[in-house]
Amino acid sequence: MVKKEPMVWDKIEQFLRLIPETFSNSTKQTRFASSFGSKTRLWIEFERLKSHLMRTESPLVFAHNDLLLGNVIYNDCNGTVSFIDYEYAAYNYQAYDIANHFNEFVGLSIDDIDYARYPSEEFQKSWIRTYLTEYLTVTDGDGQGDMITHEIDKVYEQVQHLSLASHFLWGIWSIVQYELSDIDFDFCRYAEIRLGRYFELKNSVFRELV
After folding, report:
1. How much is the CA Rg of the chain, to the nearest whole Å?
2. Contact 82, 75 (CB under 8 A)
3. Does residue 154 fall inside a structural domain?
4. Below-70 pLDDT ranges, the chain
5. Which residues of 92-104 are buried (b: 16+ CB within 10 A; e: fewer)?
6. What is the DSSP string of 194-205?
7. 10 Å Cβ neighbour count for 37?
8. Angle at Cα 104 formed by Cα 98 and Cα 105, nearest 5°?
9. Consecutive H or E run containing 143
């Protein structure tokens, strides 16, 4: 049975527990300490993040949770969109899934990541309008009217807040991969980018949530 609770908190905790107290070699340990301080610091930051974002009113939906552009397949012949790679699919905050998707617009390859590609407010609200029209049609039978305009602004705000959780989750995931993975990829650098973005944005978001 699928647990109807937001997966993001359990998943971050799972990844945090997998970070070793001491890395397998001194080079990794030194780089980790230089970039992130300590595992304890990351746990403290997680608790602070969770305490702020659990106040969100974003509804729970069954979410993909990893909608990078490579997992979105567009069929040009019939104009349909489908998703692949459901490894992380679970119940989660609606706005988290949207925020995570927008975060992936900037690129995945370390040499290609560019936050100038992060979608503008205008683009996000247009995207959210289309999403809500479909979502409210399915759930309420009415995807039109004043409720849409009101909901667009609310969901947009929730997306900005839960964007932090997306950055934090994939940053912690990448630290785990830095220790365990044999893939030729600089996971530590990717973690630095994602957690760097988290720390860059968190104070302004936390102020809004006080």
Report:
1. 18
2. yes
3. yes
4. 1-2, 140-147
5. bbbbbbbbbbbbb
6. HHHHHHHHHHHH
7. 12
8. 100
9. none
Phi, psi of 49 (to 5 degrees): -60, -50
Q: So what's the pLDDT on residue 91?
A: 97
* Helical packing angle, 39-53 and 146-180, nearest 10°: 170
Q: Is residue 1 part of a domain?
A: no
Please give the residue range of the domain that contains residue 18. 7-209
What is the total residue count of the chain? Answer: 210
The amino acid sitting at 105 is F
Could you identify the residue written with the tokens 């609770």?
5
User: Which residue(s) pair with 80 in the sheet?
Assistant: 75
Whole-angstrom distance, CA of residue 158 vs CA of residue 155: 5
Tokens read off for 126: 């247009």
pTM: 0.93
Separation of alpha carbons 69 and 67, rounded Å:
6
pLDDT tens per residue, range 132-191: 988 888 876 665 556 678 889 999 999 999 999 999 999 999 999 999 999 999 999 999
pLDDT of residue 150: 85
Is 2 within the bounds of a domain? no
- CATH number (domain holding residue 46): 3.90.1200.10
**Number of domains composing the chain:** 1
Q: How far is CA 21 from the centre of its chain?
A: 25
**Is 81 inside a domain boundary?**
yes
Q: With residue 31 as reference, give the H or E element that holds it.
A: helix 26-36
Q: Is 175 exposed, middle or buried (0-12, 13-18, 19+ CB in 10 A)?
A: buried
